[in-house]
């Protein structure tokens, strides 16, 4: 693994998945990232009603991932997620602010008089 960038991903999975199916999806993501990156942080945003049906589903589980990923592997990773039946939608963005937070730096707010 050469140079890596930090990415933030929001993933919406089918809310009808069983716990074992969720673990299978997690395992697939971790297996792909084994050589090309790693999961820095993963958090459940919650089960939410979708604004409109996606793949005939009206609810989804929202997950937020902070990832370290080789830039050359981003398109492969996106293709793999698109092929997953249990993934309704995802958005993967390059993130600089997450990197600063991970290093313990805080952004100072400027006070307005």
Automatic annotation (TrEMBL):
It comes from the Bacteria. One of its GO terms (cellular component) is cytoplasm. Binds together with bS18 to 16S ribosomal RNA. Keywords: Ribonucleoprotein, Ribosomal protein, RNA-binding, rRNA-binding. Belongs to the bacterial ribosomal protein bS6 family. The keyword Oxidoreductase does not apply. It holds the Pfam family Ribosomal_S6. The gene is rpsF. InterPro entries: Ribosomal_bS6 (IPR000529), Ribosomal_bS6_CS (IPR020815), Ribosomal_bS6_sf (IPR035980), Ribosomal_S6_plastid/chlpt (IPR020814), Transl_elong_EF1B/ribsomal_bS6 (IPR014717). Signal peptide: none annotated. This is Small ribosomal subunit protein bS6. CDD domains: bS6. One of its GO terms (molecular function) is small ribosomal subunit rRNA binding. One of its GO terms (biological process) is translation.
């Amino acid at each position: 693994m050469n140079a890596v960038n930090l990415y933030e991903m929001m993933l919406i999975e089918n809310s009808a998945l069983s716990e074992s199916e969720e673990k299978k999806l997690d395992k697939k993501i971790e297996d792909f990232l084994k050589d090309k990156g790693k999961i820095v942080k993963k958090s459940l945003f919650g089960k939410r009603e979708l604004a409109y049906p996606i793949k005939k589903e009206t609810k989804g589980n929202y997950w937020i991932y902070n990832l370290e990923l080789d830039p050359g592997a981003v398109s492969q990773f996106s293709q793999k997620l698109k092929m997953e039946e249990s993934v309704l939608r995802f958005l993967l963005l390059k993130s600089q602010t997450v990197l600063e937070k991970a290093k313990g730096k805080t952004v100072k707010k400027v006070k307005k008089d």
